[in-house]
Amino acid sequence: MSxxxxxxxxxxxxxxxxxxxxxxxxxxxxxxCGGCDVSFLEVGEAIVEVLSRVEIVFWPALVDAKRSDxxxxxxxxxxxxxxxxxxxxxxxxxxxxxxxxxxxYIVAYGACAHLGGVPSLADRWGKEEIFREVFGKGFRPxxxxxxxxxxxxxxxxxxxxxxxxxxxVDYVVPGCPPPAPLISRFFGALLxxxxxxxxxxxxxxxxxxxxxxxxxxxxxxxxxxxxxxxxLPDPETCLLEQGLICMGPVTRGGCNALCPAAGMxxxxxxxxxPEAGDPGTAMLSALASLVRFEDEGEExxxxxxxxxEALADPLGTFYMYxxxxxxxxx
Length: 330
Ligand code: SF4
Ligand code: SF4
Fold this sequence. Notes:
Layout: E1 24-29, H1 35-39, H2 46-52, E2 55-58, H3 67-72, E3 78-84, E4 87-89, H4 90-102, E5 103-109, H5 111-115, H6 127-135, E6 156-161, E7 171-173, H7 180-191, E8 200-201, H8 258-261, H9 279-291, E9 293-295, E10 298-300, H10 314-318, H11 323-329
The chain binds iron/sulfur cluster (2 copies).
């Protein structure tokens, strides 16, 4: 766990005014691993302050509230609902819509709600193929033997989609899971009554490279691509320069370049910068400029070197967290 983090960071004029009453908060988990629910602990002791200054009205991982309790609430009676996870099942979509109806503001919390996340990589295959691969040939979803239809598991949607495909999203706290500085930034604004105008992403507009402490050389060029388990990188030099695919040039900053600081390339969990747009296209362009050669003033890309061909799993590398979003936009 990170060291305790202050909840007082950048201040903004707020559509959620500061008031004496505690903001009513809901947290819900759709198709996710559960890491986002645990991530709140990343802020260390400050989580105690957060929990003492909000009223939790619905958070199945923490308090025993049922769907019927949520249904009984008046429309708009929850101030802020944080939803983490991809929308993968009919139940996920229903719950997202229910929370939208009961809440003034909806926050896509974490990479899955934001962009589809790792689970949306499953959309390389159709629903039927997934069932066949996981449960075997001939499997049909339905109630357990002897039970009625109500006991059936909720059906999968045709695709795993980000939250914004199902409901209007006001705020995003990105990351897989969101890192401590961004969780603090969000709660600092909420509890200070200084939330920015929606829509707003609680991360930097500038790329991660801007906050990374590793040295980038002007004449850098990639001569080979390597994977993290194949090298022990130099501790000072830019990882991309050392042939590791680091998504820093196209990813939003805000995490203090956590992964490169620990010797691991950024995998892009905060999502692409507004300038980068589609992270795959932007990263390929960045890579192409790094593998180029120059001869007598002319630039060329030596195909025989096969530098880019050595890239393993381009889709999983460039769209690890964002396939759900960009699959449809390509
Ligand atoms: S290591 Fe990654 S984040 Fe750091 S400067 Fe290089 S490309 Fe950017
Ligand atoms: S360095 Fe990249 S992958 Fe690591 S936390 Fe930051 S944005 Fe996410």
